[in-house]
Specification:
Blueprint lengths: L1 H4 L5 E8 L4 E3 L1 H9 L4 H10 L13 E3 H13 L7 H7 L11 H7 L4 H10 L9 E7 L2 E7 L10 H26 L8 E3 L19 E2 L5 E5 L13 H15 L8 H11 L6 H7 L4 H10 L4 H17 L6 H7 L5 H12 L3 H9 L1 H10 L1
Parallel strand pairs: 6-7
Antiparallel strand pairs: 1-4, 2-3, 4-5, 5-8, 6-8
């Protein structure tokens, strides 16, 4: 109520929610890799640096954390050519940012009764939007204003300049994706009035090949997208209650990220991969909505334990990190959650039968590289 009191009399919030959920799947990143034409070798390097297994490239429903996604997004932002901004990239990629990228959630939004219902459906299942910011939609007079805000993330080894680049990348992607979504569900009945961004005008803005149809200004207080008519109860062109309910039902199941066809071992393993360092036994039990005792008992029935699954994930993750010569053993130990490098070295020796440094040297030896090339 206090927030409402400071608004203009004809201003009120239509919908609000955080798209930057901690639980999400890899699918949003896979779409970005395709959009930026990132080849498999570079994608693998980005994934392993974020603590993800190579097989995540092949599994669109692989669960990841928001931090892991932001690490990869930063790598994508860094990969842009010199002088190329994320803003111009996403403006020119607008035709590829359609609502079909949201899968079943996008189909539910497309067949919602009204634009307001579509927005609220989107914010009910934010895990399926793969967004990075908080979105607030409010009515102000005869306009609908979409505002996007993002807290500056704290990422390992990222400078302030890196974080600036990441925030620009994420806000531009979220805002322009939302613009395309609104155009799709309303069949582009009304184009936007204006767009604002809270960062300086990029150097390549003047050379943008696909000029937006509305004014775009930079160095403004917030990222904002304004439409000329307020969102109301006007029926959407493809409104279909039966189809809408069907897609919402599927979206609800997908948002749980706990598909019934996966074994408990697979679900626990996926959650261990989703965070660096991995979650504790208690945290895993909470994520799976069960007690620690029940988790232990059910894993024992499947012939394993939390400790065994954790060791498998940590071993593979450690080997992925060790293949990166830029990471020291101390840095790898810290990334894996070990208080001391010695503790990591002892654990790795149990897994691999040798120390981390010896394993790294063995992988880098010419004979080993030749063996791998013959295997390929």
């Amino acid at each position: 109520m206090r927030n409402m009191a400071i608004m203009k009399p004809d201003t009120y919030v239509i919908a609000s929610g955080n798209l930057a959920t901690s639980q999400r799947t890899i699918n949003g990143l896979l779409g970005q890799l395709a959009l930026l034409a990132i080849d498999r070798k570079r994608a693998l390097a980005m994934f392993t640096d974020a603590g993800l297994p190579p097989r995540a490239l092949e599994e669109p429903d692989f669960p990841i954390s928001l931090e892991q996604e932001l690490v990869v997004c930063l790598a994508l932002a860094r990969s842009l050519p010199e002088g190329r901004s994320a803003v111009c990239l996403f403006f020119e990629a607008m035709p590829q940012l359609g609502i079909e990228n949201l899968g079943v959630l996008g189909m539910a939004m497309r067949h919602a009764a009204t634009a307001v219902e579509a927005l609220r459906t989107c914010l009910t299942y934010p895990q399926l939007t793969w967004g990075h910011s908080r979105m607030t939609v409010r009515r102000e007079g005869e306009s609908a204003l979409f505002s996007f805000s993002m807290e500056r993330p704290l990422l390992r080894d990222a400078s302030e300049e890196d974080i600036d680049r990441l925030v620009e990348y994420c806000l531009a992607l979220d805002l322009l994706s939302s613009l395309r979504n609104m155009e799709d569900i309303a069949d582009a009945r009304d184009g936007p009035l204006y767009i604002t961004f809270p960062f300086p005008e990029p150097e390549d803005w003047a050379g943008l090949s696909s000029r937006p149809a509305c004014p775009v200004t930079f160095a403004q207080p917030e990222a904002r997208l304004a439409f000329p008519t307020a969102l109301d109860d006007t029926p959407l062109p493809r409104a279909n209650p039966l189809v809408y309910r069907s897609y919402v039902s599927i979206a609800e199941k997908l948002s749980q990220l706990l598909a019934e066809e996966f074994s408990l071992v697979d679900r626990v393993t996926r959650w261990l991969w989703a965070y660096t360092p991995p979650p504790s036994r208690r945290q895993i039990a909470d994520l799976l909505a069960m007690s620690e005792r029940n988790l232990t008992r059910q894993l024992a029935r499947e012939g394993t334990s939390y400790a065994q699954l954790l060791a498998r994930v940590q071993e593979e993750r450690a080997k992925n990190f060790l293949r990166n010569p830029a990471l020291s053993v101390t840095e790898i130990a810290d990334r894996l959650g070990y208080a001391e490098p010695a503790a990591f070295s002892r654990a790795f020796s149990r897994w691999a039968g040798m120390s981390p440094l010896k394993w790294r040297r063995q992988q880098a030896s010419p004979a080993r590289r030749d063996d791998r090339s013959h295997q390929l």
